[in-house]
Amino acid sequence: MHLDNMEDNPSEGKNKKLFFTKELMHWEGHKKRLMPWKYEKDPYKIWLSEIILQQTRVEQGKSYYNKFISNYPDVDSLANTPIDNVLKDWEGLGYYSRAKNLHTAANQIVKEYNSNFPDNFEDILKLKGVGTYTASAISSFAFNIPKAVLDGNVIRILARYFGIGEPYNKASTKRNFQKLADELIDMSNPAKYNQLIMDYGALICKPTSPDCENCVLQPKCFAFQNDNIKKYPVKIAKAQKKKRYFYYFIIENGEEIVLNKRSEKDVWSGLYDFPHVEYETEQNVEKACEDFFTIQKLENISMKDTKRAIFNYKQTLSHQFIFSFFIRINELQPQELYPNYHVVKKNILKKMPFPKTIAWYFKKCYLTLIL
Fold first, then answer.
1. Is residue 213 part of a domain?
2. What would the mean pLDDT of 134-155 be, rounded to a whole number?
3. Which of 231, 254, 288 delimits the end of a domain?
4. N or C end of the chain: which has fewer CB within 10 A?
5. Are 134 and 275 members of one domain?
6. How far apart are the C-alpha atoms of 292 and 276, rounded to whole Å?
7. What pLDDT does 1 receive?
């Protein structure tokens, strides 16, 4: 990996690394960042916090962390809870595979480790949904094992400080970032070091408007000294987000409503939505209805039996946009649909897990229903 200002001077490079670690370990600004899991030593609680914080802002994650600690105070209580209950508690946080992995890993710990959280990096890494970053965080915070964390905050700090001009989202570059991070960690107190560098990225070396004036690393920061903060970190542009158009059909019969359980191989896996048809481009309601009736072989239903799609909703995910349209059907018995759908009582909806889009619809259209 090319370090713009160190390649030709190994001695200067060593001094630059020593300066980085020393100054970071003496930085006092971390005290301003308060989080319920900060300085926690229980590996179970650290694991919960790290999984919740994947792809989630700290402020949003706090309430979910407190909920999960309250509802699942130990690994056994999490493992013994039905997955639908766990998904319901996760509702609104997104990336539901995290909740499913959490539940699977809890059962791993119960069965393979006799309900004792593994105490070494290699075994922690074997848990479902745990990658190098999470395993490093748990290892260092709970057991003081010298494994350096590497997330977006850390990459940004290292790229700016060392002037790393290669795209960080290339696999080869990320491996080199990890090697550099491992070289910088304070071996005598890895837990403190990892917490400090994460706090530093959140409070000082921020993505936009970094607080360079109060940066203790400023004297040797390559990006600052060269007045080029905005250049780092370098990233390969992502492909354009995919657009998907869901036309949902709301089918009711008194106190019953028809739901669809999402596929294991698609977005919102394991959650519930409504029967629907999907397109790559926006369609008119008439075409969506005709296609749905044809697919379901409902030859006796026509447009007069539907209400226009009054509500629509856009949800932004990491790799795609989902545009949802909701169409109510007046005269259709749930029994006329294929058995791959679920006919449920409306009074149990509040116990079922739904993606944000469907939860929005219920709150919009069922004002008396508490989800």
1. yes
2. 96
3. 231
4. N
5. no
6. 7
7. 47
Q: From residue 217, how far is each of 11, 210, 294 by CA, in Å?
A: 18, 12, 65
Q: Is the peptide bond before 233 cis (omega within 30 degrees of 0)?
A: yes
**Is 196 found in the same domain as 47?**
yes
DSSP state string for 214-264: G-TTGGG-HHHHTT-GGG-S--PPPPPPEEEEEEEEEEEETTEEEEEEPPT
Parent domain of 327: 242-365
The rounded distance, in Å, linking the Cα atoms of 215 and 97 is 37
Q: Compute the distance between CA of residue 148 and CA of residue 164 in angstroms, rounded to an integer.
A: 18
Residue 2 lies in a domain: no
Q: What is the pLDDT of residue 71?
A: 97
Examine residue 103 and state whether it is found in any structural domain, yes or no.
yes
Say whether both 90 and 214 belong to one domain. Answer: yes
What is the mean predicted confidence (pLDDT) over 306-320?
A: 77
User: Which residue, of 231, 260, 281, is where some domain finishes?
Assistant: 231
Supply the mean pLDDT for the chain: 89
Predicted confidence at residue 309, as pLDDT, reads 53
Tell me whether strands 320-329 and 242-253 are parallel, antiparallel or unpaired. Answer: parallel
Judgement on whether residues 77 and 29 belong to the same structural domain of the protein = yes
Q: Is 249 inside a domain boundary?
A: yes
For 124-141, give the secondary structure using H, E and C: HHCCCCCCHHHHHHHHHH
Q: Are residues 144 and 79 in the same domain?
A: yes
Number of domains composing the chain: 2
Q: How confident is the model at residue 10 (pLDDT cuts 50, 70, 90)?
A: low
Residues forming the active site? 50
pTM: 0.78
Q: What angle do CA 104, 341, 97 make, to 5 degrees?
A: 25
Q: Where are the alpha helices (DSSP H) in the chain?
A: 10-25, 43-53, 58-71, 75-79, 83-90, 97-112, 121-125, 132-143, 152-162, 171-184, 190-203, 222-225, 285-295, 356-365
Lowest average pLDDT, out of 15-24, 102-111, 337-346, 361-370, goes to 361-370
227 with 273, same domain? no
Judge whether 123 and 139 are in contact, CB under 8 Å. Answer: no
Chain center to CA of 59: 14
